[in-house]
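Here we describe the complex-level prediction in full. Unlike the single-chain runs in Section 2.1, the two entities below were treated as one system.
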Amino acid sequence: MSQKKILLREDEMPTQWQNIVPDIPGGMQPPLDPETKQPAGPEKLSQVFPMGLLEQEMSGERWIDIPEEILEIYKIWRPTPLVRADNLEKALGTKAKIYFKYEGASPVGSHKPNSAVAQAYYNKREGIKRLATETGAGQWGSSLAFATHKFGIECKVYMVRVSFDQKPYRKAMMHTYGAQVVPSPSPDTAFGRSVLEKMPDTPGSLGISISEALEDAATRDDTKYALGSVLNHVIHHQTIVGLEAKKQMEKAGDYPDVVIGCCGGGSNFAGIAVPFIIDKLEGKNVRFVGVEPASCPTMTKGKITYDFGDVAQMTPLLPMYTLGHDFIPPGIHAGGLRYHGMSPIISALIRDKIIEPISVRQLECFEAGVLFSQTEGIIPAPESCHAVRAAIIEATRDLNEPKTILFNLSGHGLLDLASYESYFNGELENYDYPAEAVEESMKHLPQI
Amino acid sequence: MSQKKILLREDEMPTQWQNIVPDIPGGMQPPLDPETKQPAGPEKLSQVFPMGLLEQEMSGERWIDIPEEILEIYKIWRPTPLVRADNLEKALGTKAKIYFKYEGASPVGSHKPNSAVAQAYYNKREGIKRLATETGAGQWGSSLAFATHKFGIECKVYMVRVSFDQKPYRKAMMHTYGAQVVPSPSPDTAFGRSVLEKMPDTPGSLGISISEALEDAATRDDTKYALGSVLNHVIHHQTIVGLEAKKQMEKAGDYPDVVIGCCGGGSNFAGIAVPFIIDKLEGKNVRFVGVEPASCPTMTKGKITYDFGDVAQMTPLLPMYTLGHDFIPPGIHAGGLRYHGMSPIISALIRDKIIEPISVRQLECFEAGVLFSQTEGIIPAPESCHAVRAAIIEATRDLNEPKTILFNLSGHGLLDLASYESYFNGELENYDYPAEAVEESMKHLPQI
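The structure predicted for the assembly as a whole is:
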């Protein structure tokens, strides 16, 4: 029998996160203060983030030690398996070898706790009693709920109202981990109240929820804010995925020709890709494919420039691929891939032609997810279906090419089965966000 | 850092299932034909089961080889981790060591595919094109849907109507694996139609669904029937859980003082217990605790006798603990623990004083499940919460006793989060099934 799962022992788990920032060929531009248009220093950001995380955000060190307390919690589910998708290979009739790193093995079902546990730890270390955050689909909110409870920190989650109503299971998960969850916009913040006054029936949006969580953190001494993707420190935390995968590929006696991940804010893809990108910069022949939905084509139709991270323009200006901060995403089912911007690290690596962005359509992604479920058993999250789809594209372009494909299965879809049912019922359709609409939303970019 | 998860390599996975039947001290009585009251031979049962499984059902061999094709599919998620619940131990302040075997690691989230894959294989081997089964909460139905698809067998699931309506995620999971699912009672069988005529608005029951699936299998040449618990061959398949756990305890340099599992039909508990029971029969000092809900007290308030396995009296008479085949379970949330009978193997082991049955109440089980979620991360299925509760009882009886506890975490609760939410909202209550009601339902036992 051939080996299907390549496992690491707990004592083989990486003890450092990797920071690619000092090695990005074209360098990275700093975030800017929107008022002065000058680089934003830590003093301003320290109102909402603890210094431990801000140091990582600005760090030029290639390696960051993972504190023992975080490793202890990681051990609940890490190291995660690297799995050879041999059943999928057979179904495709390809000579390509397909491996996936399975981040759905965490208790909440995705890669998100890799950063949530770290963020809770650094906040706890600085005496923070309470964290505020937003969540859309609910993966980040439940991860932070889990992580904060482990450190005895209170957690308040502003959950986009339409998700709050449609995803009762995610809400119940956050309750189980002891977090407070409110539908956003909520009467609990001035911004939420102002929105409710104007639009009492609004389904909410991630932009509104971010603004509420930021206001909550900015107006309470005991509270900081936590973000689940985009920022450098989040990317660093997620590199444990790729560092493990690299060790596991070595154990398998293999090395990827292409590394694939889906991109919302970019953290799961960067997490698996960064350690291999370092190899490429040292001469290895390996490609990197970041996959986004055609309905939210940040990397493939947006442009790289300075933009706000949120709709209410409360964040610093970030140098990133963006569709414009007031881009309204259509109601696709991969809720985690509907962000208007892209992590500055990934944006710089696209600019430097190291990462190839592609966009795929929703129906093909669900088709790929169903094939994956039926062959490999695991039902992928709608977000992760984008990576599955891209892996299938790579594996079937030339069925006789014996290449090695590695992708990140960032989460399972057990809490997203309603969207599979919608797919089976023919209720979903493809939607390519039109170039003219991108043009329109780009008009509101800040002037630098 | 101490080791939290004890893993096995794939090449350490057991290659045989264990059969405890020849070693049960008081022996086992045969199933009886309800008409003749004589032992039921394979010829009658072969109408609905393939010979490969009937041979296992009647087998006196201590070991049954696991076919290579089944091992290949097991590798998708097996061997499953044995986990040291050190965070739970700390929260309890106990000197006991608590280990759990995590069967929620399978793609469908429970131990059920261990038997579903085997049953699909033996049916396929005998040329069966289609399987019919029933499902209540949906764990068995989704496991058989997954397993049949792997062998290219069609699958039809009769799902208790109230679950069909209330558990859309389970239904979607079965669809994803390509199964046909209908709410039961359905117009697709004569029995279903007769029920619908009399009670068009009935929520259905497992008894009705079993009868529909049996009728489906009995009236179609291409179709057999599959059952997810109770029967001997199902118990044998589940022993892979305990065989792995035994190897893993050895790796940890430990041995359980007590082995715990929740009991519906009995397969997950027997699965983890059997290999250790063999040790006990050879002189080892180890206890076995089977846990059932106080609302469905088959083992603790029922009696051991011959009874039907279903409400419609279509099965042979089985020698088992029972509450009477027309027992109506109350609407508790551990849907997998609402069966009126108990596996004949477990029943015989209770009779022989090898297994200690206990009953626990619903609210304490959810309380235990929440504590487990917050400490160990994994949210247990409501059924598995019963095992968690019993492990906590064992660990806290004397906090200073350094005993070793092993329990089977038979599944995660990600598709049962609605019941956690009901618990948080105070909508659940305890219910002890009254002794007089047991007396009443016992009146309809068949006369032998």
